[in-house]
Every structure is written in structure tokens, then in C-alpha cells.
Amino acid sequence: MTVLFTIIDTAVICAVPCLCLILPLPFNIIAALVITFTLFLFVNIIPDILKGARTQLKILNGGGTLIIAFLVSAAVLSALLIYRIAAGKFAPETDIAYIVFAVLCEFIVLANGLIRIYATSVQAGIKLRVLAAVFAFVPVMNAVFLIKLMITAKREAAFEKDYDEREKVFAENKTCSTRYPILMVHGVFFRDSRVLNYWGRVPAALERCGAVIRYGGQQSALSVEQSANELAARIEQTCKELGCEKLNVIAHSKGGLDTRYAISKLGCGKYIASLTTICTPHRGCIFVENIYNKIPEAGRLKMAAAYNAAARRVGDTAPDFLAAVGDLRESVSIARDAQMPDDPNVYYQSVGAAAKDRKSGRFPLNISLPLVNKTDGENDGLVSVTSSMHGAKHRTLRVPGTRGITHADMIDLNRENIKDFDVRTFYIELVGELRGQGF
Length: 439
Fold this sequence. Notes:
Elements: H1 2-22, H2 27-45, H3 55-86, H4 92-120, H5 125-134, H6 141-172, E1 182-185, H7 202-208, E2 213-215, H8 224-242, E3 247-252, H9 254-266, E4 272-278, H10 286-294, H11 297-313, H12 321-326, H13 330-338, E5 347-353, H14 365-376, E6 393-397, H15 423-436
Parallel strand pairs: 1-2, 1-3, 3-4, 4-5, 5-6
Helix pairs in contact: 1-2, 1-3, 1-4, 2-4, 3-4, 3-6, 5-6, 7-15, 8-9
């Protein structure tokens, strides 16, 4: 449909100013205006059709089509004008009107396309939006960024439409309606927030598919033991609040260590039906240990003071940067791991992820990835695949090509659509498996 509508839109855009070349004045102006307000009304309101998609995606997809139509029609109209000048056929009495209408038509189409994309796209992000605006009047560069915006819009609309169709089936089947509610536990240096959800688009998707979701709520930076104590209180409180016997815990990064400690050391096993750890460094990170040991104590203390001060401003009561980082070191983690036996009444499983190169994600994981690779082996930008393994079942997530999946991708931190991997679908299917196992 996109190709057909692009051809139609381009033809309409080119036809209006071209009337100025074939109709006598002053009728050409009147006719062009009439046609502009009729055909353009149709082209700009319905530039394309994305059957079965929600309104936002239809608007976004239409924006991409308008950008294509703008680029093609601008090239055609420019070529026509150049031809008339080169052939000595340039007639000011008609061609000036032609130029005015051509510019007006192109401006309307371009503005409409950009407004649609800027207003509805998630994947375009701030960076692409800003660059497209900065280079708007720089020849060649403006075309490059328009093409990037168009491709992003088209891919996003198609990706989200496919996802919506899958989610509809999951929602109808109540795939995530588990026996026990889901407690989602965040990792280090983050807090649960209603404004910026740590898990991105995932919790809302799970809830639409029948899940009952609550959050760990521990402070952003504490030792594993301290975080586990806060988490243990939250687990018991949540069971009482929901009137449930147990919870299914899905924990990311250090949150998995906090939960394991709460189960093994603080008696929370009676409240936990299953624990799924996501990219958790069960045996620590060699990379973290090396960095920790290389930074002088004075430097560590200075970094800790800066972080702790910032963390207090966003709600932490007693943040401890050094304790949090120190507990992620390999030597500390291996010793602690041996002291945290699994509870036989809790089902444990784990998930790891593998990034591939510097194109595998955004800053700073694209920088840390090769460094961690040298010390820890295959990793997600922070945690090695081997360190993430724990429990009765483990899976390592990989995708074809060079993109890979990072530590941040697993919590949808950047709300980025990744080819061949949709984080929402992954979690829906994961929770669906828990439901199928009776949890």
C-alpha cells in the first residue's frame, strides 16, 4: 500500500504546480488553488493506509509516506524547472507562479510529514529529532536526515503493528494471568518510579495480558544484604496487601542477588513461588573488580560521595555506593554465592544476554562491552553469560546480525525496537511459561 500511496501522493503534489505551466493566467492561479485545497486535503489527511493499526501508527506511517512523496516530487519538480531553463523555455509569466506553487505544495507536505513523525514516533528519539532540525537548511545533510526519519517511522509502524497483533492474542488468552502475582525487582543505581518505569514498556504489556504487577522498591545503592532486608519487608508487605500466599519474582541485575539473599538468609522462601533472574551477576564481574582495585581509595570515596548526595535527592535515605559496587566484585560474589543455597521450595531460573560489538547498544554499554569481553568473556555490556547462569533452567538471548542484546535492552531502558527481538513479547512468553508451570 505504501508504494501505491506514494505514487498517488507524488502525482498529486507534482500536478498542482505543473498546472501553472499549461493553464493560461489568471485562470491557472484559481484552478491551482482549488485543486490544492481539494487534492491536498485528501493527500495530507490520508497519505497512506496501515490496515488494522492503531491511530498513532497510522499517523506515523503516513508521515513516512509523506516524506517519501516530498523527496520524490521535489526531485521531479526541480528537474522539470532545470529542463525548462536549460532548454530556453523559461517563461517568467508562468514559471514564477509554478515556482511559488511548487514551494508551497512541498512545504505543506514536508511540514505535515515531519509533524506526524515528531509527534508520534518513539524510536526517532531526541538525538535524531535534534539533528534533523539542526541540519534542516544544510543541502544534502537535510535529505540524509529526512531519509533516516522516514525509514525510522516506517520500520516503527510496521514493528509496532506486528507486536500489537501478537499482544491482542496474548491478552485474549490472558497469557500472563499467573496463579501468583509478579514482583519486579530493579537493579543497582535505579529506583522504581512511576514517572520513568525501570522496566520500560514491559509492565504495562504484562498487565494488559492479565498479570498483577508490583515492584521491589529497594533503594538504588546498598550492599546485597541491606537491599535484601528492604526487599524482604516489601515481599511480606506485598503478600499481605494482595492477600496472596506467594509471589513470582522477576529480578534484573543486582536485584537477583538481593532476592536470592532474602530467600536464603532472611526466610523469604515461604513467600516466593519462583525467582527468574535477568542478567544477574551471580558470580560477580571481573571487570568491576579490576576497576574497583585500580581506582585509588581517595577517588572511590569522592565518587561515592557524589553519587550518595545525588541519590538522597531522589529519595534514598542511606545510599552506599561503595557497598553496592563492592558486592558486585567477582571475589565477593563467589564467596557469597556459596553461602546462599537455593530453597528447594522455590523454582529458580535465569536469563542472560549476549551483545556482539560496539553497535550492540547505546552509551555507555557500547564502550564497556569490549572491555568486559576481555576480562569476563561473552557478555551483555556488563554481566558475562556464564555469571548470569543460575537455577534449573537458563537461556541466553541472542539475535542474528551484529546488534546483540544488552543489559539495558533487557529492561527496555531505551524503549528501542530491536530487529528479531521484542522485549515485551519475551516477558509475556516468560510469564506465560510460569503460568503453564502452575506458578
